[in-house]
Amino acid sequence: MAEKKEASFVKGAIILAIASVLVKVIGAVFRIPLTNLVGDYTMGLYSYAYRYYSILLTIATAGIPIAISKMVSESRALGRRRETTKIFRTAMGLCVTIGLAGTLVLMGASGALAKNVIKDVNVIPSIIALSPAVLFMAVTAGFRGYFQGHENMVPTALSQIIEALSRLLIGLALAWMLMSWGFEEKFIASGVILGITIGTVLTVILMVSILLRKKAKEGRLPDEGGECRGSSEILKSILAVAVPVTLGSLVMNLTTTIDSVLIPIRLANMGYDSHQTTTMYSIYDNYALPLFNLVPSIIISLNVSVTPTISAAHAVRDYEKLSKTILSALRIVVIFTLPAAVGISVLSEPILAILYKTEGSVAVAAPILSVLGLASFFLCASSLTSTSMQALGRANLPLITMLIGAVVKVLANYYLIAVPGVELLGAAIGTVLCYVVITVLNMLFLRRVAKFKPPMVETFLRPLISCAIMGLVVYFSYKLCLPFLGNLVSVALSIVAGVIVYFAAMIISRGITREDVLGLPKGELIASKLFRNK
To answer: pTM for this one?
Structure first.
């Protein structure tokens, strides 16, 4: 049974990781040509609108899916099948209420935000076009949590892909049409962002259809766990998990939002005008941040899959399974995200030069991405350790560490952005410091709460040494190839060389074990090839 649960957890993580890769590819196909098409200023309007939307989106969606997933998985482990349906119904009522409130708040506050905070009224149409998405995403979040609690990650993956495709196809089409018709930049930005809202409507339709098919297939399932809890008790339990998780996510989202406030304010203090600051923020948000978020968005899908596994093990007091699951997830994070972070840092400028045509913007974004590349590893590690504590019912602890990290980031941003020659790089440095602090504090709390003590050499030191070797190989192979093969081919070859060298170093140093490989699809076959003598 334990092997089946672990296989389910790994399978779920792989499904969501594949979906995240597809979503990021679709997002790149959307954002990169869009930036090249409409320009940095229009994308700046888009970024401002999305940033404030994301605050309300976090409130509506961050904590509830985790709470539903945790409670449903626990009820299933105890045989309380009827209670899972009651949890879902109660949670959906909460989702609709919060989502509707968020939509109305964002729509009503659009003018005040534009005039008093962003100080650019051109952003108002974009905020209004995006506001209904809060409601539809809240409803989608309720469905996702329910399916994840059943360890079914496919609906979440499909909904993410549909939302991304809508953003790509509809957003790009509207941008092209509005530009060809001669509309102003503010309306072009709102047309682009309307694709997001339409995508959220489509995800709700998808989730409803999947649920109806599930109900028709299963019929009425037997209940083996006694009486269900009442709706009020369920609601209290949902809020007990969701509120701390949401607050923690809001703190981290708020730090990004603070960037959108502090960057223009501190740059204005240096003499930049409003159009320049909006354009510079666009470079930070649209050139550097998407690549910084690429690796975390893929690996963070592991968090969704690991939550019900940890919660179920905690519910039945299977501490051996609990510790093994956390260690397995942490090793996946280190093995795959650390080399990706190093690769992005080393190749930041060549990668940006491939994607974007504006050389001046690429030159500004490249050093920012080099720093953020390293931060991406700590973001993944902090996210996993925070999720682990939330699944253990200690959601207050990651909230504390996130608050401390947010304070560190705000202070670093405030002082560094206004330093001549540092400027936007100061925000990136603040991000690194933020996630390093959170990761270290989370590991200390996990050691105290769950007695979790990962082997430091195998978990961290060997991958770090392998990444250092890989980074040198990537750097010098790129420099050697560039004069003869051009930028694109040189980047591709250096990445291939880096991957080969990294995994060779990991196998030789025993940074990757047979147990790590066995958890992958076709793991036994791969292990038989890699570890023939073991």
So the answer is: 0.71
